[in-house]
Design goal:
The chain has 451 residues and is an alpha/beta fold. The chain folds into 2 domains: 189 residues, c-terminal autoproteolytic domain of nucleoporin nup98 (2-Layer Sandwich); 194 residues, Rossmann fold (3-Layer(aba) Sandwich). Helices cover 33% and strands 23% of the residues. It contains 17 helices and 14 strands. Strand 2 and strand 3 form a beta hairpin. Helix 7 packs across helix 9 and helix 9 packs across helix 10. The longest helix has 16 residues. It starts with a strand and ends with a strand.
C-alpha cells in the first residue's frame, strides 16, 4: 500500500527536514506486520515528494486480522489497500513530524505549507462521498474517484483513488491521515482499548472537536465500541468552542480558526523577541506543542486552575517520555489567575488565549492586577471572541461556549484594553484574527500589550 506526500514550498527539499527522512537515501522500518519503506521519487528545489510504501507480510497478519470468518485471514485486501495498517506505519516512521518537531526548521514546522497527498488505493466504506465528508471540513480540496470493479457492469468497488490538496501545517496533515485511514476503512486491524482514546484525542487536537462528523469519526476510529466512543466524546466536549465547531463545519475556511489564533499568538511572541513565556489559562495545552517546537522559547510555564487539565496536557505531550532537554524547558503550575503569584514574575511574555471571557466580570479587576500589575511581563498577548461576529454562525444561540461569562464587541474590547494599558503602564494595539468581515468584524480579537 502506498501514500505520497508532496510540497511545492521553496526549497521543497526542506520536506526532508520536516519528516526527519533524508531525500538522498531510502529508509526502511521493521513493523510487526511488515516493512515500511520511505523514499523520494522526486526531490528538487521546486517540488519534493516523499513516498511511504508499506510492504505487508501476509503471514504476519494471521491472528491479527479482525475478519469474522476463517478464510478472511488468508483472502483479503490488507497487503494492498490503505487502511489502519498504513496509519500505524505512518505513526511509526513520521512520529516526530506528527508532533510538529523539527530542530532544523522549527518555523517551517509551525507554519503552513502547500501540500498534496495521493492514496491510489484507499479502502473507504461510504465511497468518495465519505472521503469528502472527512477531509473537506479540514481545509483540503478533495478529489476522490471510485475504483471500478474488474467485471463490466458490476459498478464501483469500495476503494477510491484519493488526492488531497491544501495549505496546512504538516503535522496537521499527517494527523488527519493518521485518523482518517482507519475511519474511512471503518476497521481496526489490532486490539482496540482505552489507549486508543488518548491516541485519537492527541491526533485530533485542534480539529476533531469541531468536525461536523465528530461522533461518526470517533465511533469508527474506536471500532464501534460504544463505551470507548462515549468516553472520548465526553472528553472532547469540555474543550469544544461552539464557534470553532461551526467555523470548521460551515464557514468553509481553508484553515481552522483555532490554528489561525495560534499562529497569530506565536507571531506576536516572536516579534517581541520573547524567550521566557507564560501560557496563562493553558487548559489542556493546545498552544504548548507549537511553543515547544520553536527553540527560541527557552522557558515555557503553563498555568491553569484545573489540575485535570494540566494532567491531560502532560499526557497529550507524552511528558513522561519527552527528551530531558525538551522537558526541562516546560513547567506546569496549578494556580488561579485572579490571585497574585510570585512564581510568575519576571517573564518576557504572557499569553491569555481565549481566557478572559471565562472570568466573572466582577473578578476581572483581580485578573488584571495579578497579570499586568504583579507578574508584569514585558509583553502580554491576549485573544477573545468578537461577539458581533456570532451572527455569522447559523444555529449559534447565546455565547460560543457554555462557560463564557461574557463576550465583547469590538468597541467594548478596545475600551477595556485601553483602560488596562493606562492603569498598568502598557501601550496596546489590537487587531483581527480570521477573516475581517466588513460588517461584523473578525471572529477573534487580538490585543498586544507592551510595557
Amino acid at each position: 500500500m502506498l501514500l505520497t506526500l508532496s510540497t511545492t514550498h521553496v526549497p521543497a527539499t526542506d520536506l526532508g527536514f520536516l519528516l526527519h527522512k533524508n531525500p538522498a537515501r531510502a529508509q526502511r522500518t521493521q513493523l510487526s506486520t511488515g516493512v515500511a519503506h520511505v523514499f523520494y521519487p522526486e526531490a528538487s528545489e521546486r517540488r519534493c515528494t516523499a513516498a511511504l510504501l508499506l510492504e505487508v507480510d501476509p503471514i504476519g497478519l494471521l491472528g491479527r486480522t479482525t475478519e469474522a470468518f476463517a478464510l478472511g485471514q488468508y483472502v483479503n485486501d490488507r497487503p494492498y489497500a490503505a487502511s489502519s495498517l498504513l496509519a500505524v506505519a505512518l505513526g511509526k516512521v513520521f512520529g516526530s513530524a506528527r508532533h510538529g518537531v523539527s530542530k532544523e526548521r522549527p518555523e517551517l514546522a509551525a507554519g503552513l505549507l502547500p501540500l498534496e497527498v495521493h492514496l491510489p488505493a484507499l479502502s473507504c466504506r461510504g465511497g468518495a462521498a465519505m472521503a469528502e465528508r472527512f477531509f473537506g471540513p479540514l481545509g483540503w480540496a478533495v478529489d476522490a474517484r471510485p475504483v471500478p470493479l474488474d467485471v463490466p457492469g458490476w459498478g464501483d468497488s469500495r476503494y477510491v483513488d484519493l488526492r488531497l490538496a491544501g495549505t496546512l501545517r504538516l503535522a496537521d496533515a499527517l494527523n488527519h491521515l493518521y485518523v482518517g485511514l482507519p475511519v474511512l476503512d471503518d476497521a481496526k486491524h489490532y486490539w482496540v482499548s482505552t489507549d486508543e482514546i488518548d491516541k485519537l484525542l492527541r491526533a485530533g487536537a485542534g480539529w476533531l472537536a469541531g468536525h461536523p462528523d465528530r461522533d461518526l469519526i470517533t465511533t469508527r476510529y474506536l471500532a464501534h465500541q460504544r463505551s470507548l466512543a462515549t468516553a472520548a466524546i465526553e472528553r472532547l466536549e469540555p474543550g469544544l468552542d461552539d464557534a470553532e465547531a461551526v467555523d470548521a463545519a460551515v464557514a468553509d475556511r481553508s484553515v481552522p480558526l483555532a490554528r489561525l489564533r495560534q499562529e497569530a499568538v506565536l507571531a506576536e511572541l516572536r516579534a517581541a523577541g520573547a524567550a521566557r513565556v507564560l501560557d496563562l489559562g493553558a487548559g489542556a495545552g493546545t498552544l504548548l506543542p507549537a511553543l515547544l517546537a520553536d527553540p527560541r522559547f527557552t522557558e515555557i510555564v503553563a498555568v491553569d486552575v484545573s489540575a485535570r487539565a494540566l494532567a491531560d496536557a502532560a499526557r497529550r505531550l507524552h511528558l513522561d517520555r519527552m527528551p530531558e532537554r525538551q522537558r526541562a524547558r516546560l513547567t506546569m503550575l496549578q494556580g488561579a489567575l485572579t490571585y497574585t503569584d510570585a512564581r510568575l514574575v519576571g517573564y518576557d511574555a504572557a499569553v491569555l488565549m481565549e481566557v478572559v471571557e471565562h472570568v466573572d466580570p466582577d473578578r476581572l479587576p483581580a485578573l488584571e492586577h495579578a497579570v499586568f500589575g504583579a507578574a508584569a511581563p514585558a509583553t502580554v498577548v491576549l485573544t477573545t471572541p468578537n461577539a458581533e461576529h456570532n451572527v455569522r454562525w447559523p444555529g449559534l444561540a447565546g455565547f460560543r461556549h457554555r462557560d463564557h461569562r461574557f463576550e465583547w464587541t469590538r468597541a467594548e474590547f478596545a475600551a477595556w484594553t485601553r483602560s488596562v494599558a493606562d492603569r498598568y503602564g502598557y501601550s496596546v494595539r489590537t487587531g483581527p484574527v480570521g477573516a475581517d468581515d466588513p460588517e461584523v468584524g473578525p471572529p477573534t480579537q487580538l490585543a498586544v500589550f507592551s510595557r
